[in-house]
Amino acid sequence: MRPVRSERHGIGYGCRGPIVAAMLAMLAVGFAGACLPAAARGQAAKAAQAAPDAAIRPWVRYPPVPARLSPQAELGRRLFFDTALSASGQMSCASCHDPARAYGPPDGRAVQPGGKDRLQSGMRAVPSLRYLDDTPLFSLHAFIPGSEDAEYEGPSGGFDQDGAAASRQQQAAGPLLDPSEMANASPAAVVAAVREGAYAQQFAQVFGADVFRHPRQAFDDVGAALRAFQAEDPSFHPYTSKFDAVMSGHARFTPQELRGYALFNDPSKGNCAACHIDVPGPGGRPAAFTDYAYEALGVPRNPQIPANRNPHYYDMGLCGPKRRDLAKQTQYCGMFKTPTLRNVAMRHVFFHNGYFHTLDAMMHFYVERDTDPRKWYPVVRGKVQKFDDLPPRYRANVDRSDAPMNRKPGDKPALDAREIADMIAFLKTLDDGYSDQAGGARSPGQHHRGSD
Description:
The structure is a single chain. The chain is mainly alpha-helical. Helix content is 30%, strand content 5%. It contains twelve helices and eight strands. A hairpin with a 5-residue loop joins β1 and β2.
């Protein structure tokens, strides 16, 4: 089980203090302003509006946009959209990772179709490929530096939802061989498709004239080109959300968004910022909205996943079955990597198994999982089968100590319906497309889907 982190990541920790305090000062004016004379209200509002700029601007450093992609990245772009790289000839990387949906799933299906005939189904909901640039290497025993001492974090980092891919290059190449995805029979089959494709000469120019004589290395080069495309192309890290505009001083949250922002950071309410870090990182790196760590949340079993028709099959994240090297480390069974919340409102499937299809349902699960478990889990012979997507012997791994999942049946949920609506309004500010450039002002004619 991971440690309780609300104090470590709470208001006042590191650079969170000045930023969150400044933003919440705006909210305080909204609550208290009605009790002030008109002149005092105006002065307070001006002070609150000025506070975020002074606190935030020195912290945020958005990545520069390259004038053009490198030859390797340009090659990777062609590979990413090429359906010939699948055994069916109908599926590209973009088939599951839709650029129009932040490189996440194209629709609301819990898992996407794939395989040689596209009649197979994946095992997990498709994650977004955006904002993976700063993902750390996988470690079972990560530590977070503190003001006095390092604090144990547990498993952290790596690519894919179980951290099994050691690099973005491995993550990019993995689906090419997965039998439920692009389903190529071997690395050599992928290389043959490239060699026979329209950009074979471009591939040889980038990686060497004799590249196709060495299929194993050429397959690694396919992954390298895909990695370069995702690392260089700004569409994989645009930072064009309203949140980024606010952080850069080019926009203001509405009152509802501000209330949601406060709840997001409140350790006794949403407590989201404990895992979804919402302040700049080292060197002014924009907020990642993930700590890259792992958590077992006890999401209900999803009958829409064909693999789940087998009552003995369980997707246990870190300890298998897709990842095999940690199979005996059963204390990690049920843990999946915390995803970024950037562009979360664009999604129609949530959690690793795609059980939920709306932000509202997902939020209600968070706050009612323990207060009303009958709402979420099956009842057998009068007993609630809580955490039914894990074998009974591993259900103790599920987090029950961090708010809002630290309640008991019959307790009042940490958030009510209005507070959930406020939280969703804030989460919508994390969707890209508000501006044309990183941290910029709203684009002319752009309609923000939030509450303003």
